[in-house]
Design goal:
The protein is an alpha+beta fold. It has three helices and 16 strands. The strands form three sheets. It has a seven-stranded mixed beta sheet with strand order 1-16-15-13-10-9-8, with helices on both faces. A hairpin with a 2-residue loop joins strand 6 and strand 7. Helix 2 runs parallel beside helix 3. The two termini are 35 Å apart.
Amino acid sequence: MVAFPELVPGRLVARDNRFRATVCVSGREMPAHVPNSGRLRELLTPGREVWLAPAAQPARKTAFDLALVQLPSGLVSIDARLPNALFAEALAPHWLGGGPEQQVAREVRLGGSRLDFLLTSPAGRCWVEVKSVTLVREGVALFPDAPTARGARHVHELQRAAEAGEGAAVVFIVQRADATRFQPYAANDPALAAALIAAQAAAVVVKAYRCCVSTAGIRIADEIPVEWPS
């Protein structure tokens, strides 16, 4: 589990820009950092109950990070930095069979991109890109919630690695518990959906996992099926 610091309850007033929101804490409005570049339109609506993490750097302009959003279906973690930590903690140690000889390298360059992980063991190597998912509609987790040329570029790099005989994987971490399956959001980003379909056909592994989220922390709960758009 990735533990949260002691969180502070608040209410969202407005999302000011890509990385900043105004929140109300104990009757006082103040800015908070939004650690996610996605649109988050279904989540960051005015009046929504939120949970805030105190900033690690006391001198920072924003005193809080916006950590959790409360929905009727449960809590949603919006911090796009957490899925990498969740993968490293819960999945990477077992990905290539595990064992003491397995090595995990982060932020490793492949072609024109820098991918999240390179796992190496006596069984071989596997390049892994991890994606944060926060959008769920009628039980279907969808990615991305905003078009991402960078995401498609990463998938193309993974496909080239797979075609060269190396292991490659895209892992979608759904930071909420109410998803029952995952789909690439083809209507929102057809280029990424097409890239994922082609990569999967070229032996790139595509997996999705949902999480249990509480004010204490977040952990991977289980794997959910990946469905492909028709």
